Prior knowledge:
- There is one protein chain.
- By secondary structure, this protein is of the alpha/beta class.
- The protein has helices spanning 40-44, 61-68, 83-92, 166-171, 190-196, 201-208, 227-237; strands spanning 2-7, 20-23, 27-29, 48-50, 77-81, 106-107, 110-111, 113-117, 123-126, 129-135, 143-149, 152-156, 178-182, 216-220, 243-245, 251-253.
- The radius of gyration is 17 Å and the shape is globular.
- Residues 17-221 form the Metallo-beta-lactamase domain.
Amino acid sequence: MQVRTLGCSGGIGGELRTTCFQVDDDILIDAGTGLGNLSLEQMKGIRHIFLTHSHLDHLAGIPLMVDSIFGDITEPVVVHAAPATLAALREHIFNWVIWPDFSILPTASRPVIRFEAMQPGEVVELDGRRIEMIEVNHVVPGVAYCIEKGVKTFAFSGDTTTNDTLWPALNRHARLDALVVECAFADEDEALSQKAFHYCPRTLIADLAKLNHRPRIYITHLKPGAEDRIVAQLQARLPDLELRRLSGGQLIRL
């Protein structure tokens, strides 16, 4: 299994792109502006998109992608998400005002995209990969994903703050090789992080103590301009942890 970081920033500007990860060649986890780093041919190979929640920085690429590949695919791209996230997509994006409804284009029987609801705890199996949805704690309904392929296990937290749902779910797996976890704000902005339901270094480190595994840890979703402070605060608190700042284009091989 290979995870390619197409976007991992908490904002845009210059080289920064928002959250999107490509698993092997055919799966996306979230579809923020990082999706635009795929070529047209690579977009045509995407068969499944798993969304963590309904915020724009995690799904902005979907409308433009399906429009770009509209005439070149024979099967719909399946968008997997919690029911509340799919409802938001239908109501606020694919509503004929912001964007055409590609779930019924070119016809209702042969659409470009198909929405498929998942519930926390549910597992989707795709060509030897088991993708589990896990509830997390965000300002809108949010989820994480844990992916197993063979003996390797990868997890992505999505957007979240302090919770007691992600960590027990990950502990139930026999192993965890790599964890991508958000930390959007520096410690001096902890009050804002709490209002936005994001981690800061202090709260993330408190939650990492709930994890029984010792995976490689990649930090994502850092706010532009605060990246170095956030990483320095994390490393100062946990100098012995294998912790890395994620960057655009980075490959996570498992």
